[in-house]
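For this section, I looked closely at a protein sequence along with its fold in token form, which I now present.
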Amino acid sequence: MSLDHDHVHAEHGHPWSPPSELEARVRALESLLIEKGRATPEAIDAIIGKYETEIGPLLGAGVVARAWADEEFRRRLLDDADAVLGELELSGFEAEHVKVVECTPSEHHIVVCTLCSCYPWALLGLPPGWYKSPAYRARAVSEPRAVMAEFGLVLEDGVRVTVWDSSADIRYLVLPLRPEGTEGWSEERLAELVTRDSMIGVSRPLEPEAAAA
């Protein structure tokens, strides 16, 4: 579906599907641990939170940072992300088929999964709760600018917004704009600016001064 001012891409059939085998196993293990008294819901939530915001997204941040620093890598990543991620051994764990979409000064990308919660776990860690919520799945398509504004990202009127609908066949990773003032930075320093939310497209990367603080 194409709108006059924004684009929504849903390139693949996307019928509802039950949880994947991996998700089902995780849920069963979680229930068993709680039932046997080996873990509490609070402890599991704390671990999940750490993987959501710290451990998981570091892998995707490294990919983005390298794309910012290495022009040849960026071109290859945009042309065939599956091949590049395979070389980096990042192609499994719900990231077998990934398309990288690049933000530019005139176009911004945001990712949603409208019918379930397809998400590149290998790159971004566990999906945040809001990404799986019905409200986000509906509003990211119908009013993406309003959703981004709630995350603190207000785009200029002339910036085109393209919404990508992930599916079981393909998942998307946003390559955000590189922050100004980072010329000459190492990949390690650049990766510190990349957040999970900026790779989903609901926000921009951190500013240089924020990372240095």
